[in-house]
Amino acid sequence: MPVQKEYWNWLKSTKWNKKNSEMLQYSIIEAVIINKPDFNNLKLLSENIQKNMIQVTDEIIALLQVQASSTA
C-alpha cells in the first residue's frame, strides 16, 4: 500500500478530514491554521501561525504515535 494511502487510512476520520470523504489529491489532511487572519498586524499573525502550527503538529504526531504503536 502506498505510504500516502496508509496515512490517509489513519487520518481520514480525524477532525481535519471531517469534510473529506475521499483522499485529497496532494495531501492527507486539511488543517486550518488561522480562521480569520489579520493582515494588518503581521507580527501577531506570524506569532499565531507559529503557535497554531506547533499545536496542530503536536496533535498529528500524537495520533500517529498511537496508530503506529497499535499496529506494531
As a percent range, the share of helical residues equals 40-55%
Which class do the helix and strand fractions yield?
A: mainly alpha
Q: How would you state the average pLDDT, rounded?
A: 91
Largest sheet: none
Instruction: Name the poorly predicted regions.
Output: none
Number of E-type strands: 0
Helical stretch count?
2
Helices and strands, in order, run as HH
Shape: elongated
Head-to-tail CA distance between termini: 16 Å
Over the alpha carbons, how many angstroms does the gyration radius reach? 15 Å
Q: Approximately how much beta-strand content do the residues carry? A: under 5%
Description:
By secondary structure, the chain is mainly alpha-helical. Helices cover 54% and strands 0% of the residues. It is built from two helices and no strands. It is elongated, with a radius of gyration of 15 Å. The mean pLDDT is 91.
List its traits:
72 residues, mainly alpha, single chain
Tell me briefly what this model is:
This protein has helices at residues 3-11, 42-71. It is mainly α. The longest helix has 30 residues, at 42-71.
Present the secondary structure layout.
Elements lengths: L2 H9 L30 H30 L1
